[in-house]
Amino acid sequence: MQLPFDIIISLTLSFLIVYLIIPKIIKVSNIKKLFDVPNHRSAAKHVVPTLGGIAILAGFSISTIVASNSLNINELKQMFAAVIAMFLIGLRDDLIGLSAKKKFFVQIGVALYLVIMGSYRFTNLHGIFGVNEIGYIVGIILSVIAIIGIINAINLIDGIDGLASGVSILISVVYGFWFLNAGDVIYAITCFSLTGSLIAFFMYNVFGKANKIFMGDTGSLILGTIIAVLTIRFNEFIPEKGNAEQGLPAISLAILIVPIIDTIRVFSIRIMQGKSPFTPDMNHIHHIVLKLTGNHFTSSLIIISVNALLILLALSLISIIGNGYLFILLLITGFILAYIPSWILRFQNKRPVNSDPTKSIYALSVFTKKGKRKS
User: Fold this and answer.
1) Rounded to whole angstroms, how far apart are CA atoms 330 and 336?
2) What CA–CA distance (Å, rounded) separates 310 from 287?
3) Quick one: average pLDDT of 83-99?
């Protein structure tokens, strides 16, 4: 598929903006001491600036507007308003801190605004649990839950280098090509503007040394908001041209399966332990995989690759078993895969030390020396 010129502009311009801005942000962060300070639950053990989300927002916004210059993008106004609101909340949290309860209430307000004013609302479940068309009120409730869930899911996987940005690159690329093939150029531009911004950020986040940076809540909250909007648009948009079929919930579940499964899993563990579901801990899938590999990039690559394979599986099975059965199959498969790293780690820790000299001990010691910071 040949990429249209405006898509190339959105991808290239967003990459360049973020690539050029991040060193400036790091310089200001160092001068003003705007750092992420490691603590007992951090995967990171070094002080690193946390304001990468500023660059991501700049690259995404400017490139989307420039590349869409000849198009009517009025329908994106509500999305940009919601993204800016989440950006401000994330920025405050990164700079001076903000309680989970206050962030949650803001997320509810943003979700309601997107659903009611922006019309980002589910109207059809396409056979999930035997349900097709849904009423207005039910659609609002499900949509608000989905938006808040996706925002928090993206926020929660931002725990090791390259994971949140890498998974989001995969999500935006898949949605981007689908929208492009379906003839929805505006949302294709939106996706590739996000992709270019995240690729540039990924380079600094994973491979940066003197110029290493984290996206912080500033970045993860705006990512979650954008991805939530794209997901609802994907499920509701009916293609008028090209070979694209109607976007289905099972396919969007496969696209978002890593953050969704991880969020359900850790929330369930916390609730069963009598804790708040928003209590930070080290029970995320990425923390466990990191204990096994001892390397951030390797851990992120493994998780992103599994996500990509599940997307391919979903695309190959959707026409065979249908949307409803595929949705259930993906949930079961996702939970099984999510617990495999824990089982492997448990098996390693039970092995006699003499049978395999310090293998699991080495992995754990590396984990304590490298990493990122987040719950």
Assistant:
1) 10
2) 21
3) 94
| Amino acid 348: pLDDT | 83
- How far apart, in whole angstroms, are the C-alpha atoms of residue 263 and residue 134? 26
Is the pLDDT confidence value at 366 over 70?
Answer: no
The token pair that represents 220 in the structure block: 């993860």
Structure tokens at 252: 């969007």
Domain locations along the chain: 5-367
Rounded CA separation 169/149 (Å): 19
Tokens of 138: 């039910």
Bridge partners (DSSP) listed for residue 128? 131
3-class DSSP state of 373 = coil
Under 8 Å between Cβ of 272 and 178: no
Strand partners, 48: 36
Please tell me the distance from the alpha carbon of residue 44 to that of residue 38, in angstroms, as a whole number: 6
Angle, CA of 335, 341 and 342, to the nearest 5°: 85
Amino acid in position 90: G
pLDDT in tens, 254-296: 999 999 999 999 999 999 988 888 888 888 999 999 999 999 9
Rounded Cα distance, 262 and 268, in Å = 10
